[in-house]
Amino acid sequence: MPGVPPTRFVFLGPEGTFSEQALKSVPAADRGVLTAARSVPECLDAVRGGDADAALVPLENSIGGQVGVTLDELAGGEPLMITREVVLPVQFVLAARDARPLDAIRSIAAHPQAGIQCRDWLRTHTPGASVVDVLSNATAAIGAAEGEFDAAVCAQIGAERYRLHILAKDIADNPDAMTRFALVSRPGPPPPPTGDDLTTLAVYISHDRVGALLAVLTELSVRGINLTRIESRPTGERLGRYVFFLDCGGHVADLQMGEALQALRRICADVRFLGSYPRADIHAEPPPRPAPGLSDADFADAAAWLRRIRGSGTG
Amino acid sequence: MPGVPPTRFVFLGPEGTFSEQALKSVPAADRGVLTAARSVPECLDAVRGGDADAALVPLENSIGGQVGVTLDELAGGEPLMITREVVLPVQFVLAARDARPLDAIRSIAAHPQAGIQCRDWLRTHTPGASVVDVLSNATAAIGAAEGEFDAAVCAQIGAERYRLHILAKDIADNPDAMTRFALVSRPGPPPPPTGDDLTTLAVYISHDRVGALLAVLTELSVRGINLTRIESRPTGERLGRYVFFLDCGGHVADLQMGEALQALRRICADVRFLGSYPRADIHAEPPPRPAPGLSDADFADAAAWLRRIRGSGTG
Amino acid sequence: MPGVPPTRFVFLGPEGTFSEQALKSVPAADRGVLTAARSVPECLDAVRGGDADAALVPLENSIGGQVGVTLDELAGGEPLMITREVVLPVQFVLAARDARPLDAIRSIAAHPQAGIQCRDWLRTHTPGASVVDVLSNATAAIGAAEGEFDAAVCAQIGAERYRLHILAKDIADNPDAMTRFALVSRPGPPPPPTGDDLTTLAVYISHDRVGALLAVLTELSVRGINLTRIESRPTGERLGRYVFFLDCGGHVADLQMGEALQALRRICADVRFLGSYPRADIHAEPPPRPAPGLSDADFADAAAWLRRIRGSGTG
Amino acid sequence: MPGVPPTRFVFLGPEGTFSEQALKSVPAADRGVLTAARSVPECLDAVRGGDADAALVPLENSIGGQVGVTLDELAGGEPLMITREVVLPVQFVLAARDARPLDAIRSIAAHPQAGIQCRDWLRTHTPGASVVDVLSNATAAIGAAEGEFDAAVCAQIGAERYRLHILAKDIADNPDAMTRFALVSRPGPPPPPTGDDLTTLAVYISHDRVGALLAVLTELSVRGINLTRIESRPTGERLGRYVFFLDCGGHVADLQMGEALQALRRICADVRFLGSYPRADIHAEPPPRPAPGLSDADFADAAAWLRRIRGSGTG
């Protein structure tokens, strides 16, 4: 229900992975009930069906590789709305049942993508160990806890949950890598603007309209709307139809975003509004200063001027 | 005074030229007082100073070559507003005091530009005559009436006023040439939209902003605003500042024009609104059908959709 | 070596998955040696290091979810080049050790994404079965072959390799879904144009350049280059730097593509050319007819005209 | 004949006006034969017909208001080429047969536009005098020399030719006003690039192509071609066809201008190249520094890179 904070949360399981860790950083989740689901579709179906108030699902650059699924699920079916983003640094640990020297490790369990992300570190520090693919970071931690493997590549939260000893921290090769999650609810009034928000859209473009994407970007650009992410995906339903997922700087309540959204509504085959929400703190940089003529004040001044010339013929 | 039809008119003199002919086609001028002024600045000063309610001045492709003056005068000084355009075909006549064969004509008075516009016709039909430059089409007619010249190139109205006999009609080499005039008043509420209007703007651009004109045209184009005329003029006041005169399809009261005007207000050094007024009938072609997404209905639908997603998160 | 067909191929393993099936559709692979690798980076490192001549790796919408890895690997490290794309319909089968009625199946092994893609079918036809996540489509087939599970969701080639009985074909919920693979070699002269080619680029954009993506698309659009795919990815190396992966219609040898590539080279932080190669037959639609002024003939005519005016001042 | 400096010059008469003054600033005119013609068409016909090697005609902001004629004449008929621009400050003098106090002047002869341009000065300094329209600045000077009028508003050269005494200099109200002239020849190899050149084009656009002008400007903008002037004119020959006159920064021999010209040739109904020639010194400002990616060096680097990737697949 709009205005009422969610209390029943679902997240992409299993427990002990980055999704749970991300959900725990959401304030309301402290006092809520948290349930793991097996897949992104199950998470979102729980919200759609009313069994949960909000779902925490990976959106971008996820370890589990389910990002495409999230986008496809948000773009189709009953409408849903992102109310919050959570951005986590990808920080893997190497953990084992007990403290042991790295050169004593012979087998390491890792989700395939976790293995890839720590490849250089593992080659350098555990050259004698074989890396075994497992289904999730949590599965890796469990495997180490149960002694099936000497060690696991997993999330901090997974090591804690399964009482593993952390042999090494920050073992991902790329220290800047992030995972981005979305907290998703049924549609309602968007959270109020904070001055540094993002708006996520699914924009459908017909294949036969040359320059359609250029037209979309032009509508954003002329109104000073910045784009922080764009991803194209084919839509299964009809060959030759594309959907673009856009993360735009700004809030649906802003004058400029309102104008831009109306323009996309007019020129695109379809637009689905997927939410306006505060940008996560972790983005080091402040939002770029608007170019001349594109600030909030410029938009307000122009609206006042138009009212004057419409009324009296002179501004 | 807004709403009250003008009764005191001034036009670019002298009497007996195309300007007077154009003014006489304006319905309200039938019942009004018509005065000739010596120059475009005097015409417009009469309106600015309250000595006249409206001025009829040439705007484009004029015989008298004073178009640039009109534009410069409208762009500077006290604001004025175009409330009507009048488009006249450029139809010169060859006239003389009495009927006479063309090959008996030895001297023809003509305004220099009138002479140029009828050059081929005169070469062919009066090869033995010398063409003498005079200061206006009316001066030419007077010269023929007074016997100073054998004949005059002039406007139909000039031949009538000075009781000349018309030796030949439609002698301009280009039968499609038009002259366009503007009826100009002090600012007030623009005339209501008719569904086929023009809006005239003076848009100032700073020299140092590369691509500024491209930006202006993009703002118009994305909102489906068509451009029927564009002219650049340097502004004397500061080197490197340009003013563009734009005639745009649409009315200041339209949603799309309103959005576009606000955008120009934001991104340009300055914008002067010079009026929204009905397109003159003489334009043979109807306004082009708006491209997909750019019709009035599309704009209305998009505005309604935005209200829905702002309110409930879903459209 | 350029011109010499590759003979040693590596593909994303394990054997019996869609990657192997895709590789087998490449003519030269018939007479070559095919080796499975554990991950996309290992595939590409084999080519970079000279241990293989070509690698077949998933590029888009892959079952294994490794697409991002492929893109990141192609964008960084030693340059590689795509010489061929292979597009396979995503056609899952349900297979078991022997023929059995669907309602007798209690457990089904499936890669998590395969399970998601067949979710509706499984719910409808095997409502009593539990779906168990396994690490790959091949693992699923092996699990069924060894009796660990009653059935497997897998690729046709996996069912054949492990001598499974196919209980149902075409069980993916979305019959139009495709997986797209790339055959990747060390750089060399691109394959000759066929008249229907794609060119893949990795385009780097600095975060602080507003409108940079718009600029990129404009350069393509003005030269009539169509875009069939675009994907943005953050680059780990420096915050605020983005890389876009573009699939463009046309070949590096084309006049228009040559102009466009030069333009991207000029305006982007960096551009990596990732290959020009024939578009796979499976795309039902022919390439769109170029807009007026954008055909090959138009480009050739314009080049000839320029030579004339440069030489003699008139075209 | 290309390469041979012109020796027979024609200019827009009568003698003693700004056109003659402008022509005398052209070095080759020192040793040439200078002839006045009655109109711009006569000037250009003299060149087309071989009776003159070059014509000096007003191009912009001219006193005589014949600019439109020049443009129309250049756009139609046998091709001609601008080889040089001459920019003169509009500097009027008030001159009389002999020295006399300003308050003794009762009548002043002036071309109508000269009168307008000096209106404020005349109102202030000769409030008791009546201004009489005459056909040219030279006619005004002659009228003063012959005693028909007490004084004349004319060009410095006119005062000198008719041995008038200059009563006041620099009497134009706008001290920044300029007149721009073109030296026009039959087509030939353009003069070599100087690093600061202009290229003039007549670009034809079909009325029914929405956004055509935007497309033209985009082609210029993406190649860093700056626009210093744009003017639209309807073409008489067919209703609904427009011609735009563009002055662009750069030379036809430049890489970037060559690309841009080819693009216009492709997308426009027609393009007429009207010449590349050095920018006149009088423009105070140096040409703007090219934006990143748009310098000559950037274009050369990109061409070299394209050759590398076409040859070896990697840059």
Automatic annotation (TrEMBL), chains A, B, C, D:
InterPro entries, per the entry: ACT-like_dom_sf (IPR045865), ACT_dom (IPR002912), Chor_mutase/pphenate_deHydtase (IPR008242), Preph_deHydtase (IPR001086), Preph_deHydtase_CS (IPR018528)
EC number from the UniProt entry: 4.2.1.51
Boundaries of every Prephenate dehydratase domain copy: 8-186
Signal peptide positions (record): none
The protein's annotated pathway: Amino-acid biosynthesis; L-phenylalanine biosynthesis; phenylpyruvate from prephenate: step 1/1
Any one Gene Ontology molecular-function term assigned to this protein's record: prephenate dehydratase activity
Catalytic function, reaction form: prephenate + H(+) = 3-phenylpyruvate + CO2 + H2O
Pfam family membership, one: ACT
Site keyed Essential for prephenate dehydratase activity: positions: T179
Alphabetized CDD domains for the sequence: ACT_CM-PDT, PBP2_Aa-PDT_like
Residues covered by the ACT domain: 201-278
PROSITE patterns associated with the record: ACT, PREPHENATE_DEHYDR_2, PREPHENATE_DEHYDR_3
GO terms (BP aspect): L-phenylalanine biosynthetic process
Alphabetical UniProt keywords: Amino-acid biosynthesis, Aromatic amino acid biosynthesis, Lyase, Phenylalanine biosynthesis
Alphabetized PANTHER family for the sequence: PREPHENATE DEHYDRATASE P PROTEIN, PREPHENATE DEHYDRATASE-RELATED
NCBIfam families: PRK11898.1
Name of this protein: Prephenate dehydratase
Organism: Dactylosporangium matsuzakiense
